């Protein structure tokens, strides 16, 4: 290679087109005893590679040598270009003063086109430092010169940077215009790394505009592009953490941020990126309810940002630190002052997070009884309620609701809460995945609680019922978006089933399963990732809950018992006989603890020889009744009862409670979902489907007898009980009975499964049905176990079925004895043959069981859900 040859000049743009090849050629050039000019280019290429993808100390070493060779070559433009690259590396190393000085020298040495490139890189550094106005000014001066020189690559970079700065200032429309213009330019180049960066930036823009599924899809696409190039993705990790937190996936965001920090430290990477990753981890830990981890990460981020002279970033880290300290119970006057100061700093930067800081200052002041200070800070925060991204508007409405509470206006609290939850409703409906919809409700938990308290003061039990329903089980209010007919998703599901089946067989044979489990987890991540990309339908169209309609449907005999929780105490709402009444019961925390004891007792009773535990479990049932129903027991009457518990009480075996044992008892996630189930008409053909999975202790002994009883029922067993065939037959059936091992996945509830001949059938599979069976009976362990997420949402098999056309489910929330299940199931079906509802048939079936502990526990473990 000779000085000034095309091959040498191509090396610099190649760093972001094919990084690995550029690095190899630069090293080869140095091995060939290059001229000073060529050696300067080669060392600069190695420096850029190490700066962005490797060890920052090595980067500084090579960039200083690049500058020395440029001086020896007596090329002012070459020296200016290297100084700009060195300035970026110094700032990323936390040596901000030296970095800015290098830019001053570079801008003075370079002329025309080269100086424009220096200005672009200084604009990038201003963005890193959080000096957005300075960044926009340097880009404004660089772009016309780059365009005039027909420098497509650097013009596209400058437009991408300007768009990113606009996003940081909350100007989404300007950002999208620049991203579009930059993308058109990138399409004319071979700059694959820059193209991946453009896709990543579009993901950030989608997120800022409120489109979480599109953001996740674009960030995943960018990650695939980076992976093909073999380059790290630290900025992408930071951005994905932000999107995951907005989607309610804070624990995943924390894990991603911590893992990326570990990788960055392992390669001696950029100090600036480390600080940003620590900030992302602090935010995630705070959202995940881990204030102590948040404090540790945020405090370190504050120190790093301060040392790097990055005031914009430091203010954001201080905000998270104050939030975490407040969450850890450290509210004080000093904290109010700190939050107010951070709010002022963020506002001076034009940062969209400023209202969050004002809201925080107002909350802490409220706790301290400083009403005048609270009102001042909340008024500032409330200004954001009219415009901006959905979560920023929710912040504003939360501030407005707190202001109304402070003023003693229950009406104002209800109005602000309604408006804020309406904003969240619209945002939630843009999410196609039921998991994201469920987790997004956490953002509205405070508004719902404020409204519940205000409604109890101003409107009594009926209004409290309305607000209890307003933010309960919202995922069940509309059917989930159907997964797309994505060939890769379908093949992934098939591969997942095969691997899971092989892993299960290996476990039974005592063979190693580590590699199979690793591949299963990889496929789960891929399936889940594609599912989260789904976009929801347009907002609107769901019915508002109507108390009058509920009371009409219940009539004079049935009673609905909805349990609301206010300030940690259970409020029992008795709905029926034309009115709504309220009584107060025990503490939710005590009830949760008692429910865990009951579950442990039922697990013991599922095995022979544990009869001595029966009185203990029954005593726990009596204590649970006192905590959950209290004085309401005397008002239950003698008719059917529908229990609507909060999500945190979903594992209570309600039939164990003495006052409910001999009743037609059903459970529903919300009053609204019970009403929808009541209005669901059975399919006209009355088709019955019986499914028997492998590995049951009894072999699913009830299925052959039921097949004889129903005559024309479709029976799927042994090799015929394969997932595609089972789904085909379940679609639109009037009654389905599935005897198959159930597995509940607390870590990933939508991968909870039923074991079929070819592997597990999971919740994601059921969401593909056009219409799930009208009635479905799941006769094995753990099929009714659910994960409580969001504000008051439940994820699992039962809740996946209810919005898809299922009006009633019988399922089990605890381990049960397979042999004891058989007579219960046969008696249950006999009741259905006699025209009873699932709740009535299950009540009568329990009464037919032997009185021993094993059978009694089996009967208590099953519940009827819905209204069929």
From TrEMBL:
| InterPro entries in the cross-refs | CHAT_dom, TPR-like_helical_dom_sf, TPR_rpt
Question: Can you name this protein?
Answer: CHAT domain-containing protein
What is the source species? Streptomyces tibetensis
Q: Where is the CHAT domain?
A: 619-861
């Amino acid at each position: 290679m000779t000085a000034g040859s095309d091959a040498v000049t191509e090396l610099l743009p190649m760093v972001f087109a094919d990084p690995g090849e550029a690095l190899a050629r630069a090293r080869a050039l140095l091995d060939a005893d290059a001229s000073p000019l060529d050696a300067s280019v080669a060392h600069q290429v190695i420096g850029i590679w190490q700066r962005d993808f490797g060890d920052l100390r090595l980067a500084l070493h090579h960039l200083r040598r690049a500058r020395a060779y440029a001086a020896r070559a007596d090329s002012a433009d070459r020296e200016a270009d290297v100084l700009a690259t060195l300035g970026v590396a110094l700032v990323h190393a936390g040596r901000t003063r030296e970095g800015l000085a290098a830019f001053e020298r570079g801008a003075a040495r370079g002329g025309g086109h080269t100086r424009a490139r220096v200005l672009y890189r200084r604009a990038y550094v201003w963005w890193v430092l959080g000096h957005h106005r300075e960044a926009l000014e340097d880009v404004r001066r660089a772009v016309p010169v780059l365009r005039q020189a027909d420098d497509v690559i650097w013009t596209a970079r400058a437009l991408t940077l300007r768009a990113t700065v606009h996003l940081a200032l909350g100007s989404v429309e300007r950002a999208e215009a620049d991203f579009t213009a930059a993308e058109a330019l990138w399409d004319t180049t071979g700059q694959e790394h820059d193209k991946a960066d453009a896709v990543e930036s579009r993901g950030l823009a989608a997120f800022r505009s409120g489109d979480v599924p599109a953001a996740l899809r674009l960030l995943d696409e960018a990650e695939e592009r980076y992976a093909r190039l073999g380059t790290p993705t630290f900025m992408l990790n930071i951005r994905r953490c932000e999107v995951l937190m907005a989607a309610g996936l804070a624990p995943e965001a924390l894990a991603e941020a911590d893992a990326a920090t570990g990788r960055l430290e392992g390669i001696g990477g950029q100090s600036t990126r480390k600080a940003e990753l620590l900030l992302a981890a602090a935010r995630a830990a705070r959202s995940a309810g881990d204030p102590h981890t948040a404090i540790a990460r945020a405090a370190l981020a504050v120190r790093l940002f301060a040392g790097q002279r990055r005031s914009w970033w430091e203010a954001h880290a201080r905000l998270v630190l104050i939030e975490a300290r407040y969450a850890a119970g450290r509210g004080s006057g000093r904290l109010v002052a700190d939050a107010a100061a951070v709010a002022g700093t963020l506002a001076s930067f034009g940062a969209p997070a400023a209202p969050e800081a004002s809201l925080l200052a107002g909350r802490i002041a409220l706790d301290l009884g400083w009403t005048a200070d609270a009102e001042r800070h909340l008024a500032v925060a409330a200004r954001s309620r009219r415009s901006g991204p959905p979560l920023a508007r929710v912040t504003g409405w939360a501030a407005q609701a707190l202001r109304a509470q402070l003023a003693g206006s229950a009406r104002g609290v209800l109005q602000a809460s309604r408006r804020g939850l309406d904003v969240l409703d619209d945002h939630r409906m843009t999410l196609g995945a039921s998991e994201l919809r469920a987790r997004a409700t956490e953002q509205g938990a405070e508004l719902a609680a404020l409204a519940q308290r205000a409604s109890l003061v101003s409107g009594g039990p009926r209004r409290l019922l309305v607000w209890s329903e307003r933010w309960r089980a919202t995922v069940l209010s509309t059917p989930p978006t159907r997964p797309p007919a994505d060939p890769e998703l379908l093949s992934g599901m098939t591969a997942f089933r095969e691997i899971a089946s092989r892993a299960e067989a290996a476990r039974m044979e005592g063979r190693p399963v580590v590699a199979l489990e690793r591949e299963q987890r990889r496929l789960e991540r891929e399936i889940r990732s594609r599912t989260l990309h789904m976009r929801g339908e347009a907002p609107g169209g769901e019915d508002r809950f109507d108390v009058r309609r509920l009371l009409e449907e219940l009539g004079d005999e049935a009673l609905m018992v909805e349990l609301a929780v206010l300030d940690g105490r259970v409020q029992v709402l008795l709905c029926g006989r034309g009115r709504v009444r309220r009584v107060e019961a025990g503490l939710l925390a005590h009830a949760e603890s008692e429910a865990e004891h009951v579950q442990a007792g039922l697990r013991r009773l599922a095995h022979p020889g544990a009869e001595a535990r029966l009185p203990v479990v029954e005593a726990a049932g009596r204590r649970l009744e006192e905590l959950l129903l209290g004085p309401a027991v005397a008002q239950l009457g003698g008719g059917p009862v529908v229990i609507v518990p909060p999500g945190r009480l979903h594992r209570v075996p309600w039939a164990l409670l003495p006052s409910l044992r001999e009743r037609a008892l059903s459970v529903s996630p919300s009053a609204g979902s019970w009403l929808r189930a009541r209005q669901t008409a059975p399919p006209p053909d009355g088709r019955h489907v019986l499914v028997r999975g492998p590995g049951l202790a009894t072999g699913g002994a009830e299925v052959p007898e039921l097949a004889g009883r129903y005559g024309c029922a479709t029976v799927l067993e042994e090799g015929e009980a394969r997932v595609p065939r089972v789904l085909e037959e379940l679609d639109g059936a009037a009654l389905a009975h599935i005897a198959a091992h159930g597995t509940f996945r607390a870590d990933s509830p939508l991968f909870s499964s039923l074991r079929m001949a070819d592997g597990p059938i999971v919740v994601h599979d059921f969401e593909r049905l056009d219409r799930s069976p009208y009635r479905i009976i799941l006769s094995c362990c753990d099929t009714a176990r659910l994960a409580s997420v969001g504000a008051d949402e439940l994820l699992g098999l039962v809740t996946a079925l209810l919005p898809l056309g299922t009006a009633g489910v019988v399922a089990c929330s605890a381990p049960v004895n397979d042999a004891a299940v058989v007579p219960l199931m046969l008696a249950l079906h006999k009741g259905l043959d006699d025209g009873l509802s699932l709740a009535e048939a299950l009540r009568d079936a329990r009464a037919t069981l032997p009185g021993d502990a094993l059978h009694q526990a089996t009967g208590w473990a099953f519940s009827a859900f819905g209204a069929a």
